[in-house]
Amino acid sequence: MKKQSSFFTILTLPLMMIIVIVIAINYIINYTVTKKELEKIQHKEITLITQQIQTILPHYIETYSANDIKLIMKGKLKSEHIQAIVLKDYYLAKIFNKKFIKNTFLKDENKPLKKNSFYSSSNILNSDGEVLATFEIYLDNSTIEAILDDILIKYLMELLFVTLLLFFSIYWLLNRYVLTPIQKMIAQMETLPFEESEEKSIQLQNSKELNTLIVAINEMLYKMSVSQKEVQSLNERILLSRECTNDGLWDWDVVQDKIYFDTKWKEIIGYKDDEFTNSLNEWSLRIHPDDFDKVMQDTQEHINGKSSFYENIHRLKHKDGHWVWIHAKGKVIQDEKGDPYRFLGFHSDISLQKEFESKLNLRVKEEIEKNKQKDEILQQQSRQS
Q1: Residues in a beta bridge with 317
Q2: Looking at beta carbons, which pairs linking 162-165 to residues 24 or more positions away fall under 8 Å?
Q3: pLDDT in tens, 271-310
Q4: Of 8, 31, 133, 161, which is least packed with CB atoms within 10 Å of its CB?
């Protein structure tokens, strides 16, 4: 019996190692995919900011509006992905007979600029295609690094827990469903006469031992498969929620047509967790009528696989009655057949950004109108002379 116990005890070790390796590979894949997704979101946001700077700044550079330029740059530094923006103004430098005038805008004045965090350099052009200035963007990877560190720590803790759990579970299963039944069968066979028990003991030992072992392993693997899917499902929600800690999470079960809104999602539009039902109808009723068709179109196109990433800007009605500008981002998760079964994403409140853009556009229009009036006055004076 000691030899039998030793055999099954040793059997647990390679089996456990194989399962742990599979789990480890799964976590490494999740870690890599998460990092790529974070970097993709980072690149998309910085590309948008670059385009905004190239669109907005030419007017302020040509009018030497240093304070407005500083205000705009400080606004862009609110992005969690940007450490600094370095502006080289060639237009203003002409006045001082210099090659360029350099201004460095730092998110944190107490932290030095890291040269190795350089991301991109872009030109700012006027309407004639003349280069007015260039600006360099330096990344702030602290948020991504913190998320990845949390994933790594969580992975190590869970791996340790799963390893211990597997070890004791496998040992208990083998002891309960293999060793103990064999011991009982041998004990029963020893009570029979030798002539009868010799053939039965061989038959029982060969058939019962293998069948019991197969049943125990299959049961263990089935339980692991179910629990692993549950853990993976939970991890997907946790990992995605960590990407944007200040955003609201929504998780849509496309198959069962059920949706989950987290507390932050509801707070953005003024509701407490128990004041807002997790319902697609509750959400759709609060979409601004002018944005409704576009929201539904983008959502359906992404579910149908026509876009790799879901993104939409729309307005939702706040509990108090005003409209909140929402930047929605998300992605569909597909099963093995390529069919969508889950749609996860985040809502960001960009009302302040929209308000700033509105004021900025109004100011630009006012400046254009003033310049137009000046031109008319000059034309009148020219005619009179």
Answers
A1: 323
A2: 162/20, 162/23, 163/16, 163/20
A3: 999 999 999 999 999 999 999 999 999 999 999 989 999 9
A4: 161
